[in-house]
Amino acid sequence: MASSSTKVEPQNEKGHVKFLPLPQSETETHDINDEHLEDQSFSISVDSTTTRTINIPDYYFPEEILNNRTQTCEIAQDLLGFIVLILLIFLPLYLRHLGSPHDDPIPPIITLNSMYVYNITTGKEGLGATWDAKFTITNSNVPSIYFRRVDFTIFYKQNPEHVLSFASSYPFYLDQEEDMKLHVNFTTGLEDNELFVENELVEEIGKDKHKDGSLSFGMQMKIQAIYYGETWVSDVTMTPHCEDLRVQFLTSKDSGRLTNPNRNFSVPIEWKPFSFF
């Protein structure tokens, strides 16, 4: 009689299928596989077939570029401020230059207030003397005058060729109705580099002083100035002069003073439009 065998899975009390536990070796194998999968899940990498590389040059420094831009802006601001300042200074003068005075500029009033002569000597060694003169220069009706150079020459009698001494003054400004007091000293024969006076003229001066006890001098000036009018600017050259300046000496003395003080100079004037260039 043929026999048949039937394999029946074990069941629990409720008729359910009962799973048998895996052998220890299989459990460890599954654990190892799970851990390996977990490790692989965290080590997934993506390889790209194309690689894009950005090369940053060594000289590319954003902070340095920002500083350079800031410095450039500051330089531009300084340059703009300088240009504005130049315009504020020279534009009014240039606009004045476009105009011209309706009449000839009026010269200032120049007065010789006093003059003293000290220690005058005449002899074989030449002429020696000191002139001490005080002037007043008044700007009567011009808005402003800049006296940029003032030169003085003193000569004997009324001959400008018989020059005895030179002197100069510092530059100065005079606004309208203002005046300037000048104290000028002339010397001759006291220093080696001073003007040499010819012997014939020295002898003439000595004879005149001994004869009359007085000497007559003349004075000439050369003034280079700038006139500032309301709507114009002008270069001006003046040649003031005054003659017959008689100095009376004390008896047996080598010093004397001007007998006719407060003498006004004649002031010829030449002008031309001021040139900026």
UniProtKB/TrEMBL annotation:
Top-level taxon of the source organism: Eukaryota
Keywords, ordered alphabetically: Membrane, Transmembrane, Transmembrane helix
Keyword Transmembrane helix appears in the UniProt entry: yes
Chain intervals for the UniProt region annotation (Disordered): 1-25
Membrane-spanning residues: 79-95
Protein name, UniProt field: Late embryogenesis abundant protein LEA-2 subgroup domain-containing protein
